[in-house]
Design brief:
Strand content: under 5%
Shape: globular
Distance between the termini: 113 Å
Structural class: mainly alpha
Number of helices: 30
Largest sheet: 2 strands, antiparallel
Radius of gyration: 31 Å
Length: 633
């Protein structure tokens, strides 16, 4: 009787439990939909038929099969079989589209692991780009509230392409700059910050549809009819063809060598070029280009032009050819989307920190010089982003104070902020903006002057010039090779000073190099004379001249940039090196189709210099490099 009673109670409890669980199906389903966890009842077409059949046959054991695929993918990953792991990851993403960690794993594997396992730089870039496209085109649209995916995508742009960890980073940057030059042009080249923002605003305000674009705009309709000779759809490829005409302005050959690989690729469609170069279409072309850019950003890159404009208004004139600008966009987008979902996890804090790092990097490398013909790219400091980073820190602190992050972690921002302000002070001082440097000095005093270390050492009680000198000495002490530091400073003097016809910048970098030279020689002279002779430097004047010769002969610097440096260099420097560099410059100029007489004219007074060198005359007395005058032409 006891057994029967127990069985009856058990059956009754089972029936009640099943009935109650049935009542929970609706709320659970609704919660899954709100959290975007629902998936299709059948696997997507990306899964091979044999796998799809197996999944359908397994039914409720489908989750176990996915676990097995994960186990195999991890095993392949640990064994270095990245391609096999990549194949399994494709199946897993198709079967688990609402699992952010799946997309993150897959994208990281392609961008970081598979890319370095290939043999050519174009193969490596292809895999990095595949990782980007996977997150941007599929992972994030499936999981719009997943902070982790925005951070992962921003990190690939910021770290893999924008930093120096990968030895192919310059190739990645060049390929990305070319791709985005075809979409956005050169948005900041020769433009003020306000002009760059207004150009972006024009894209945001462009019509959303083709009908809206052509309605009431006869000029645009006529332009589209004229462009129909190219038979391009009104979309991304037409935009690229239009921008290519301007990218290669003044170059009439039909083909060019692409990316240094020796391949030949079409430069642009000559039929499109004929229309684009007709001044009668200028106004309509501007309207059409803005429409095509808006359409391409939305459809091809899944980016919001309005949000891009917000970032430019908040932080500064971002050049969208720069990988770190995209790193900032996706990090900021992740913060915004996570905040909308009420996400206060650690992922949000790390994503905000990554956004701040991106702004900092733009301050040091945000100005791009890109030559589409050769693929050469240069990234120079852009002081306009120095105040932007300070604003980013203010926003981060406000969110910490408001409790938006867990755990509260303003301390993780403070040290980075202080270090940035110190470097900003030095850079602003070197660029001659003493007023702004002093303003930032007052700010760092106010924020961090009372910390224990700074109060004990009196770090911020010294004059501005002494603080800058101290920071420079500390930086020099950290360098393993003072020769490289001096060469770098002289390179900056030529490039950013003479190249931009800014005598103040030229003189300040010369002073830094001379200070480093003097300190190094003084330190060596304190030891034995044998050691000083063995590791000592040439006299600074000779170091300066040798560095100038090296710079003028360097094939890594474009002919046009070296020409600008040459025309703005002090007369005495040009006189002392002209005969040494003339033959090399003539050969390089001829190869580039440039008249050497126009790009690198012989400096005046060379007869006297040559006579002095042979003892016929007396050479003019050398002046201090910082006192040399620039000839303005």
């Amino acid at each position: 009787m006891n057994d029967r009673w127990t069985q009856s109670v058990a059956v009754g409890l089972a029936v009640v439990s099943l009935s109650l669980s049935g009542l929970l199906v609706g709320p659970i389903k609704q919660t899954r939909q709100q959290l975007r966890l629902t998936i299709a009842s059948r696997p997507s077409g990306e899964v091979p038929p044999r796998v799809a059949i197996a999944m359908a046959a397994l039914g409720p054991f489908r989750a176990l099969a996915i676990d097995y695929l994960w186990y195999r993918a991890n095993t392949f990953q640990q064994d270095g079989k990245y391609f096999e792991a990549n194949q399994l990851a494709q199946w897993i993403t198709a079967l688990q589209p609402r699992a952010p960690h799946v997309w993150g794993f897959h994208a990281w594997n392609m961008a970081y692991n598979i890319s370095v396992a290939t043999y050519t730089r174009d193969e490596r870039w292809d895999w990095v780009n595949k990782g980007i496209n996977l997150l941007r085109d599929r992972g994030i649209p499936y999981n719009p509230g997943a902070t982790r995916l925005y951070r992962e995508l921003g990190w690939i742009f910021f770290h893999k392409i924008g930093q120096f960890a990968d030895n192919m980073h310059w190739h990645y940057r060049s390929r990305m700059a070319l791709e985005w030059h075809e979409v956005m042009g050169a948005p900041t080249a020769g433009a003020t910050g306000e002009q760059a923002v207004e150009a972006m605003r024009r894209i945001v305000e462009a019509p959303d549809s083709l009908d809206e674009l052509t309605s009431g705009r006869a000029g645009v309709g006529g332009l589209l009819e004229a462009l129909s000779v190219g038979r391009y759809a009104v979309g991304e490829e037409l935009l690229r063809q239009i921008n290519r005409v301007e990218m290669f302005a003044g170059v009439e050959a039909e083909t060019y060598a692409g990316q240094g690989q020796g391949e030949v690729a079409p430069r642009f469609d000559s039929r499109i070029a004929e229309v684009v170069r007709d001044p009668a279409w200028a106004e309509a072309l501007g309207e059409l280009r803005a429409f095509l850019q808006k359409k391409t950003l939305r459809e091809a890159y899944h980016m919001d032009p309005g949000f891009m404009l917000e970032l430019m208004e908040l932080y500064g004139p971002m050049d969208w050819r720069h990988p770190v600008a995209h790193g900032c966009y996706w990090s900021e987008r992740g913060v915004a989307m996570s905040a909308a979902d009420g996400d206060k996890r650690l992922d949000l804090l790390n994503t905000q920190r990554q956004s701040s790092h991106s702004i900092q990097q733009l301050a040091w490398t945000g100005k791009i010089s890109f030559d589409p013909l050769t693929g050469r790219i240069d990234m120079m400091p852009d002081p306009r982003f120095i105040p932007a980073y300070d604003r980013a820190m203010d926003r981060a602190k406000a969110r910490v104070d408001a409790g938006d992050y867990w755990p509260p972690a303003w301390g993780t921002f403070e040290k980075a902020h202080e270090n940035f302000l110190l470097r900003a002070i030095s850079d602003l001082y070197l660029y001659g903006d003493l007023e702004q440097a002093q303003a930032f000095y007052q700010r760092v005093r106010k924020l961090y002057g009372l910390t224990e270390y700074n109060r004990r050492t009196g770090r911020y009680l010294v004059p501005l010039a002494e603080l800058v000198a101290s920071e420079l000495r500390n930086s020099l002490d950290q360098l393993s090779n003072v020769r490289q530091f001096i060469a770098a400073m002289l390179g900056f003097a030529f490039d950013h000073g003479l190249g931009q016809n800014d005598l103040r910048v030229f003189e300040r970098y010369i002073e830094i190099a001379q200070l480093a030279h003097r300190s190094y020689q003084k330190e060596r002279s304190a030891g034995s004379s044998e050691a000083a002779n063995r590791v000592g430097l040439l006299p600074f004047e000779q170091v300066l001249i040798e560095s100038f010769v090296t710079f003028m002969q360097s094939s890594d610097v474009s002919i046009s940039k070296r020409s600008g440096v040459w025309l703005h260099a002090p007369l005495e420097m040009r006189q002392r090196v002209y005969d040494r560099v003339r033959a090399v410059l003539e050969r390089q100029a001829a190869g580039a189709g440039v008249r050497v007489e126009a790009a690198f004219p012989e400096p005046g007074g060379m007869e006297s210099v040559r006579d002095a060198a042979t003892g016929v005359g007396v050479a003019p007395p050398p002046s201090r490099p910082g006192e040399a005058q620039i000839e303005r032409r």
